[in-house]
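Figure 3 (text version): structure tokens given as input.
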């Protein structure tokens, strides 16, 4: 980060924000402010250019047609590519995760080019849609507690050699490949199938994004009792299906 202000960019709330994904922006913003940071949040609609000077970019999920429109506009815009080239941190959910990969299947049943910012390829799953609560163990190299979230997707995502699976599932589907992986990440770009909103359910991931953006190893602790109560409720939901 080049100055004391954290620039948080939420990409395309008009197209990509299902299942409360907007909550991810609220959580990052709040946790940054709780640490005394000055946050400039920019919500970028799909008819606006993506700013290239952000520190953290968030992209949510969406239905198949908005997902195609978002991919077209992000490819044409090029701002997110430049931001990642500048070292920005990106956190993406579901449709947004698929868009960050090399390609996915669009609403017309065609292969749609993604942004190629994360080494994943998504295809259309042949089986039942993946829907429900998920519990997964995050890659131990990240040192984070288990991931909880809610998934709802038809796409199945294969992680390539230049990305690592974000987590391995205990309950639920995640990437849907049958290999137990969920999500993917590289040094600065993260993708997950988890809605929820996922950062409200996993505030330690929001803190991880902040640490990467600030280039620090630790942040002052904050009161996480409400988050923890939500986490425990949703872990119970994932592990004791009705
Ligand atoms: N349309 C995509 C799929 O079904 C993503 C859905 C979502 O973002 N929830 O795979």
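Below: residues designed for each position.
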């Amino acid at each position: 980060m080049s100055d004391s202000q954290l620039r948080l960019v939420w990409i395309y709330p008009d197209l990509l924000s299902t299942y409360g994904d907007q909550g991810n922006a609220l959580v990052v913003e709040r946790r940054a402010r709780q640490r005394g940071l000055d946050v400039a949040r920019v919500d970028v609609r799909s008819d606006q250019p993506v700013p290239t000077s952000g520190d953290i970019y968030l992209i949510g999920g969406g239905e198949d047609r908005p997902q195609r429109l978002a991919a077209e506009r992000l490819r044409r815009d090029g701002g997110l590519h430049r931001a990642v080239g500048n070292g920005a941190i990106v956190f993406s959910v579901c449709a947004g995760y698929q868009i960050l990969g090399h390609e996915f299947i669009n609403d017309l049943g065609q292969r749609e080019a993604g942004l190629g910012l994360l080494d994943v390829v998504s295809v259309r799953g042949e089986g039942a849609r993946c829907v429900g609560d998920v519990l997964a163990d995050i890659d131990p190299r990240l040192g984070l507690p288990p991931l909880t979230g809610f998934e709802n997707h038809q796409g199945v995502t294969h992680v390539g050699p230049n990305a690592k699976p974000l987590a391995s599932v205990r309950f639920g589907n995640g990437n849907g490949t049958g290999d137990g992986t969920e999500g993917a990440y590289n040094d600065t770009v993260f993708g997950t199938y988890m809605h929820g909103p996922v950062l409200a359910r996993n505030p330690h991931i929001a803190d991880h994004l902040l640490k990467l953006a600030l280039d620090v190893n630790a942040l002052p602790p904050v009161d996480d009792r409400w988050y923890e109560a939500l986490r425990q409720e949703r872990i119970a939901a994932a592990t004791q299906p009705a």
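Residues 18, 61-64, 67, 94-95, 152-155 surround glutamine (CB under 6 Å).
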